[in-house]
Amino acid sequence: MSKIDSTRSARQLAVFLDDRPGTLARVCDALARGGINIEALASEGGAFASERRSQQLVRMVVSDAAKALSILNEIGDVAVETQVLVVEGSCELGTLGSIADRLARAEINIESVYVSSTADAKRCLIILRPSNVEAARRALSDL
Fold it and tell me: In whole numbers, what is the pLDDT of the chain averaged over residues?
């Protein structure tokens, strides 16, 4: 059985938010009011501190990146856009390890990754930011 059902490139948005209660809610509410679905999201806080404040980095794949960028700008948040690879596959032991191994053998670096599934899920969603999206897609084509 194949470990990967599909791959597609997508636009990921990365935004720095103040690391305090309510900032993520504000962003999610604004996107929802704008009709934007959040397909995947990862957040990392505390490590991005300046002298005056602590920030969290939020990475997300959304249903309409261009519209989401506009909404974020309207509410005063600046997002950076990057290409990522969205991998849908079987949720079984070793899937992510197989993907990482295949990319390593192709000399493709994984700059960031986040995974979504439930404990009893049959399928999972893996968001990868490889050093080369198209080369990663080709490297994973028969996995």
Answer: 91
Give the CA distances from residue 112 to residues 20, 35, 70, in Å, rounded to whole numbers and listed in that order: 24, 27, 24
The values of phi and psi at residue 82, to 5°, are -135, 160
- Nearest alpha-carbon partner for 2 in 117, 136, 119, 99: 99
What is the residue range of 63's domain?
A: 12-81
Of 31, 60, 81, the one marking the end of a domain is 81
- Point out the domain boundary residue: 31, 61, 81: 81
Sign of CA dihedral 125, 91, 122, 8: positive
pLDDT tens, residue by residue, 53-112: 788 899 999 999 999 999 999 999 989 999 999 999 888 888 899 999 999 999 999 999
Whole-prediction pTM: 0.85
Question: What are 92's two structure tokens?
Answer: 């079984």
Q: What is the CATH number of the domain that holds 118?
A: 3.30.70.260
